[in-house]
Amino acid sequence: MSSLEYAVEFRAVSRTFRTGPEPVAALCEVSATFRRGTFTAVMGPSGSGKSTFLRCAAGLEQVDSGQVVVGGVELAKLGDKALTVLRREKIGFVFQSFNLLPSLTAAQNVALPLRLAGRRVGESEVREALAAVGLSGREGHRPSQLSGGQQQRVAIARALITRPAVLLADEPTGALDSKNGREVLRLLRAMADDTSRAVVMVTHDPAAAGYADQVVFLTDGRIVSVLEQPTVDQIAARMTSLETPTC
Amino acid sequence: MLSIALSTVRVRWVSFVGTLVALTCGVALMATAILVIHATGTVPDEQRQRYSGVPVVVLPATAMEFAGAGGHDESFHLGHPHTLPADLVAAAAATGRVVADHTFYAQLAGGPADQVGRGWSAAEPGGYRLLAGRAPAGPGEVVVGGGDPALVGRSVPLTTAAGPRTVTVTGVTDSAPFEHAVFFSDAEAAALSPDVDALGVYAPEAAVRQALTPWSSGLSAVTILSGPDRSAADPHHVAVAGQLQKVEDPLGLAAGVAGFVAIFVVAGTFALSIAQRRRELALLRMVGATRRQMRRLVRFEALLVGLFASVIGCAVSVATGPLCGRWLVDHDLVPAGFTVSVIWWGLLVAALTGMTTALVGVLVSAVRAGVVSPADALREAASERRQVPVLIFRWLVGGAVLIGGLIAEGTTAFIRPESGADAAAALALVLINVGAFAVLGGVLAKPVTGLLTAVPSAVHALLVRRRAAADGSRPGTDGATWEIARQTAATAFGRTAATTTPVVIIIALAGSLLGTVATINAGQVTATREELAGSDYVVSPAGTPGLSQAVVQRIRSVPDTTALVVTPIVVYTEQSEGHGENMMTGVHTSAVDAAALPVVTRLPVASGSLAGLGPDSIVVGSSWPGSPKAGRTVSVWLPDGTARTLMVAAVLKHSGSSAAQAYVDSSLAGSAMASRVQVKVAPGADLGKVLAGLRSAVAGAGAQVRVPDQVATQAMDANEKASWTGMEMILGLSVLYAAIALANTLVMTVSDRKRELVLLRLVGATKGQVLRVVAVETLMCLAAGAVVGALAVAISIGGAWAALSRLVGATPAVVPWAALGGLFGACVLIGLVAAVVPVGVVLRGTQERGLMEAAVGEAG
């Protein structure tokens, strides 16, 4: 079954927003597959549909047509409860900022998805997860006592504790300095090398995208090109060509 | 979920302080009320009572039969009991020694108004001991209970229902805690008051019951009491129980109001806290919390806060309960021996109510937390979206409650106006109204602020333009401050709603309650004024329970006057409750000189004629059950239980509120004492001479002469006034904790504002301008709350006014402007301090620089 091979599949997915005076096609017949064990960067100019793409992959956005399949399950068929459980079990998230619940400690934040699933969480399990992202001994710290990079690493530890099929990252280095950003990217790279999982990252930073196995370029809701094993220079050049006004 | 809730409460304690304080106050008030109400259930134990010295007491029947629903005979207790028949007394006497107790009005000059006359044999069951002199033997001899031994042998003036006379004191006894008695010889007591009010029997209870079998069945059965039950025969004991009962109503209402305010305060602060934590909650959803888990989280938080509040509130009530008891004693609202003890189940009930209140308060917030979209975690924008479902919910619920309230007000005003004159019944309507507007406050805040700002904006724009034209400068920057404040108030929906709601509650609750009560009081004054219209002078008792016959006679004999002697009685009539069910209702009735009624009064008549009143007829008010027409007959029961069929001589246009609702001839008055004499001076007579005549007629007889206006303005029941003093105090406490909630809300919103205010500073606003923006925005929210609250006040007072107008005719609607102004002023003060000071602190020096960096950092 392909579902075992692909963590996420987009099959001719379209999404149009009709809130403004003119309907805006955020995604237009997008088809793409994300194999387990790969790291994909999604790039594109502002308004290209990157964020919509990510939200559709997470089931946060209903699609108008087409199918989104995560871990072999088609999202459109799921109700809110089933979708929540799917997110809890198969999808991990990392955002640009505000990843953690400020009232919980690092350990509590990491254990959260399992606790929400009603599971008893062993202390060692959480400690190992934090150690895996280089945060041993920080279990009792609250987010306000951690640096931005450390917070981001806690978020990655939390995203991985459920062993999800896909890790979705939205500009994970956007709020970090380059040193911390590099560390986070190395972690994401390492996560993707685990063959059970796909990592999909939305970014506008060619340097960040350079860590990926493939880069998907979106413009006006369409995939305009895909680079396999790209270099940073290739990515930057492609981005520049996409951002050049065509009018 | 519980541990997440625990962590949240611990870390975000500022968000929960308002809820905690409100709930703590609510629980403390409720617990105090429960403890005091429980204490009022037991009359302070007094070893010595009126009949504690006699084993068995027999009381006359107070029940009366009437045909109730479906032809079943039902009983009804009369205010005035029958006498014990002579054959019963004889039958009881066969079992042992008996004491026939005659109790009647007898007041020594300077004695208390509740002084009573009794036969000397009744002193023994009461445990009186003769301290000096001897027992009364002949006519005109008395023994004074608790009297000064120096009185023995003296002649003293004494007033009975018949009038003043002189008696000789032959002895004095010790004083009794339950009455002020003057003992006559048994023969004279029986002559002065032939009715046997109670019979003490020195015999075993079984023997007495056996002997009185013929009088022990049916509805008119006599009551046979022994042991502790004998206290029911002691009027003092009954009066104390009644007095305690009277304290319960305002306390119960207070507990209700406290819980009511607490629910809204909890709902408001939690709603704001949910709005503030939207991204946090979205994050929880994102990492896999289901909607149910979100709802549970919020409920857990509420329960935790509720638990803390309950524990603290109950602990506080352990101190405030006894304090409240002492306050009641100090204000003579309860007898001296009254104590409040702490009972664990009372505290438990209060604590459970507190937790329930917290849960009810977060009903909506829990749902809101459940519908937070996980996608919100990805949104960076902090600007708030108007949550359409919440708005619809507020409109629907608030609208439905308001419509229900308006229907209830209308029903009261047009179908049952008499309940509109009852403060306790009116309070329920008030609470419905206030609740509706508290819910609607959030949605009305935006249009109201829009309206409030539209006018001053236009004026301001005009002024600025004119000034600019005058000195050739460009329009100033003040307009910007105003504009920003206005926009923020309109777009920060949650914040505006949270700030306005406590103000709505404060203004609406205080204004409605005080206004309704004042309007009802004004209605009583109007009713009394109408009753007294046409009279030139009114003679009423002063320091005595009523006017003696001698005083009445002396007033009647003042030349050039017509006197209308008014004796208040209660007549009973059946009132249809619908579904073919009837119940007995007592109607306050004035027994008057029929012939003098049309001369002395100017009662407005709807149909019939006052002149038609005679011994077999009645004048009824507009709210008499069944609304009979003039010329029809009505069935009534007189105070002594006699059934009479009376013809309706006239129907009045109005119906008194607490005053008389019907008039009958004085021949039906029985033995009750007159409560006032209305005097009409003959045309052309010398008013001064008449007044002098009246003054000399009442001199030294415990009566006073006043003009009708003086009487009317003092129409408010003194006892009621005392109860409402307590009510106002509780209202004050409720208002206080709504104010605390207001302050807390504003402090909570500072964290929301930080970024936008720093942004304002970054784009070039001075510190002063930023503070002004905050102040103006807060003022707008407060003003909007006051306007919405005023709507509720208008409806509440309007409802009471409509009901009273139907009842007593044209009467003023009283708006408590001073109280409303004061409370709004307090809200403004609290609001400005709570909003501006924390912002000032945030904007200060180093903190500000840090914030700017933070703002820049987040933007980059």
TrEMBL record, chain A:
The keyword ATP-binding applies. Pfam families: ABC_tran. Residues 8-245 form the ABC transporter domain. CDD domains: ABC_MJ0796_LolCDE_FtsE. The keyword ATP-binding applies. GO terms for molecular function: ATP binding. Keywords: ATP-binding, Nucleotide-binding, Transport. InterPro entries: AAA+_ATPase, ABC_transporter-like_ATP-bd, ABC_transporter-like_CS, ABC_transpr_LolD-like, MacB-like_ATP-bd, P-loop_NTPase. PANTHER family: ABC TRANSPORTER RELATED, IMPORT ATP-BINDING PROTEIN. This is ABC transporter ATP-binding protein.
UniProtKB/TrEMBL annotation, chain B:
Belongs to the ABC-4 integral membrane protein family. Its main location: membrane. Keywords: Cell membrane, Membrane, Transmembrane, Transmembrane helix. Pfam families: FtsX. The keyword Cell membrane applies. This is ABC transporter permease. It is a multi-pass membrane protein. It is found in: Cell membrane. Residues 254-366, 729-842 form the ABC3 transporter permease C-terminal domain. It comes from the Bacteria. The chain crosses the membrane at residues 12-37, 251-275, 302-323, 343-367, 388-408, 423-445, 503-523, 729-750, 770-797, 817-843. The keyword Transmembrane applies.
